[in-house]
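Bench log. Compound arrived from synthesis this morning; before running ITC I wanted a structural hypothesis for how adenosine-5'-diphosphate sits in the protein. Inputs:
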Amino acid sequence: MQLTINDKAYTSSKTINVLNPLTQEVVAEVPFGGREEAEAAVKAASEAYVPWSRKTADARADLMMKWHDNLLEEEDKIAEVMTKEQGKPFKEAKGEVRYAASFIRWYAEEARRIKGETIPASSADKKIVIQPQPIGVVAAITPWNFPAAMITRKAAPALAAGCTIVIKPAEQTPLTAWLLKEAADKAGIPSGVIEVVVGEPAVIGETWMKSPLVKKVTFTGSTPVGKLLMSQAAETVKKVSLELGGNAPFIVFKDANLEKAVQGVIQSKFRNAGQTCVCTNRVYVQEEIMEAFTQKLKEKVEGLLVGDGFEENTDIGPLINEEALVKTEKHIEQALKEGASLVTGGARLTEGSPLFKPTVLSGVTDNMSCMQQETFAPLAPIAAFKNEEEVITRANQSPFGLAAYIFTESLSTAWRTAEALEYGIVGINDGLPSAAQAPFGGMKESGIGREGGTEGLYEFLETKYMSFSI
Ligand code: ADP
């Protein structure tokens, strides 16, 4: 793989090793840039901006579709690299490549439908015209949990809108990002339209946030880093989109279809080893069905296979690093000490292993750390609730508001609860609500703005009002 910035070979005096989280083997040694590389990327994106934004929507869409096709053609190759550097099961990695490509396709189609409007003026000699225009050069900073999709979810609407983009992927998963860039280059997307820089996070972030050439920042990651970027962006009043942490409640009412509800927990909690920002973090079950639900969940969870992502039947791969494993152990230990019971799992597969057994705890209370903080691991803590009003209050008692899940067969309960939850995404009898055409994002400290759907496109467009006197 030839790494480039503005078509020049990307080398750096500093390098880092990309590690396989399962084996700790070195997957690759990659250049680890800083200010110089960050500036070079912005310069390239800035030079590419005018020609790219002036292309017809058709021309941009055609190039994007080639990029999309290249990703699908290289699905196996990209997925293999993703499993190596991130650990997720190969079948999930392939699913992510398709999911990532779906954003490019949807926004390529949507590029042709960016429309303005005219508004009747107050005097006969005036015309009011509204025209959306690309915002300019965009800086994107992305996490390791979805190394492909978090990039295309930002780059595809940016490109469709006519913006160019500089991307800093997480240092744990730079190789997938480079493969995406390579596929874009092969598609004929001009140099500078997408630039990827791997390197010192704080230095690159600060360089981009200070640059007057960067007009917008779009970030997915932790809440503290999101807050930092937002404050740095204030200096030049950059537009900001943030997709930050969550603490998703999963509410099972007594009239729920238990089969569906258990399946919902499996999908929303144990996918990607519990390392997604919309992962269920707290399971609330109405007390009448607690025993039946817990038993069913236990059986399903015990059927999940933990292991090497390259083995066909693996459902759960390793956690990203030792810190993540220690946090999980602490959450479990504290909960057990404070009165919770272990239903299944509770430890690493073997001592010192990066693989963690899928775990269910019951008898959990809201003050325990596993209910207050995002565990980001295959741990499902279950707490009992009595009625709708109480569970809504408890679910909303969080500074976060990204995703929530409700399982019930009653339309009225579903409607009332979904409306009352202070969450940007609500899955109703659905544990997998993400889709390219839907606006994804959080309320409260979970973020600003939306990704996906028409809303996700308008994050990269400015509204220009032109007033004509004729
Ligand atoms: P996580 O804890 O999931 O790794 P982070 O918020 O630390 O979440 O990481 C998400 C992305 O933010 C990564 O690309 C990471 O390198 C980047 N990042 C971390 N610290 C900073 C920073 N100070 N400035 C800019 N980006 C940062």
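What the model suggests: The chain is about 40% helix and 20% strand. The mean pLDDT is 97.
ITC booked for Thursday regardless.
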